[in-house]
Design brief:
Layout (H helix, E strand, L loop, with lengths): L5 H5 L9 H23 L11 H30 L6 H19 L6 H25 L8 H21 L2 H35 L8 H19 L8 H21 L9 H24 L6 H27 L10 H22 L4 H28 L9
Amino acid sequence: MQITDLATEQKLLPLLRQAFRPMFLFGAAFSAIAMLLWGLTLAGHIQLKPFANVLFWHSHEMLLGFVSAIVIGFLLTAVQNWTGLRAPHGKSLLFISLLWLAGRLLLLFGDGLSLYLVAAVDLSFLPVCAYLLAVPLIKTGQQRNLFFIPVLLLLTACNALMYIGVATQRYDLTQLGSQNAVWVITLLMAIVGGRVLPMFTANGTQTKKVEAIVWLDRAALASLWLIFVLHFFALSKYLPPLAISSLFALSALLTALRCLRWKIWLTVKVPLLWSLHLAYWCIPLGLALYSARYAGVNISNSIALHALTAGAMGSMILSMMARVSLGHSGRLLKPKAIMSLAFLLVLAAAVSRTLLIWLWPAQTMQWLWLGVGGWVLAYILYVLVYFPVLTTPRPDGRPG
């Protein structure tokens, strides 16, 4: 691999040797802080005055603040394995980490600040990272992974749409931007999860890898792309609800068939696996809830949405961070036992935020607080357990 020599590597602060280190640490800590502030605001204990308004801040920061950090941490770490070239580290990694942090601070304390200042700083993060990702991919002709570049640019477009909504006082545009970000991230989870789960399951359970059924994978992903396109261009309003419901139902069925083939029942003794499988199962669950909503069932957009955000994203991110942090820091893929509690807590938060609110809406505030508490505790556990992993050199002495 064309990487820095060991002497140069040892001069680097361990936190700046690979993108997963600062992005996972800061992203996880930020998500716990942001969720706690959101919960305290909902309960009336504090009066938060972020940029734009509290609802904008919550939806924007959990998707385009927290999730974006983890996605970038994963991609800018994986690109070294894909290409054999040294991934961003040192000064370039410090720059994007500070750029990301600046966006979070401006949005949190940005009440009264210029929209153009906040938007310029925040909107620059993903394109800069896309450039850093594209350089080694293009240099080595990695065609298979180049699609991540337009995905990051699509997320940037969703982010820009949210700011346009603020600038024009069009709440519908702000909501469209955040909803589209959910579809882009869901599609990304479906693609990446479909790549790694069969391999992870085979390796972790010492069983034969489940080979892909090409038509099934393509059909499932195509249905998610269609859902994104219909929503991104606001075309769904021109179609009858039954047609949209049918599309969501088909997508849910195809995605569930993929999940079923990966044999979750083999993973019950491996926390890094069952947590990933359960996270992936939240995708067809969320799609099924949207199908039911469009079919006329009394399910709010918020409940269906949080099956994908609190459920799929929250759980998959925590599980992937726990795995990647160990693997890329040269450690055995055996997390501390308390991480199983963290995985269960974030799943409990998702259940509270969706199923319990739907079944017992009169206790919505209690379920919201339960969801906030589960999320905050889960991600604080990750930060506490993995802080020494992310801030110390690899035990094998290798770069990274």
